[in-house]
Amino acid sequence: CSRAEAQGNMDAFFNNAADWAYQKGEEARGRPPVDYTELKPKQAVLVVTWALFVTPLLVRSGYLIATGPHGWALTLDDIFTF
Fold first, then answer.
1. pLDDT tens for residues 49-69?
2. Element of type H or E holding 13
3. Would the N or C end of the chain have less CB density within 10 A of its end CB?
């Protein structure tokens, strides 16, 4: 087993241990193995989008709801005005 394959297995295990264990059980029964080292471009774009755009927007909204004068009555101007 290569280092990249071992790292991919550990990443998959830490991401969702139950699914990883199920997949390993299916592989033991003869199913084709999953290549956890393969980078899927669509998945990479989704991760980057969430990391750079969606998560900061949600964090900023939560911060403004908790500390801002408007509470739940936020507007897009409130969120995008620093």
1. 999 999 999 999 999 999 988
2. helix 3-15
3. C
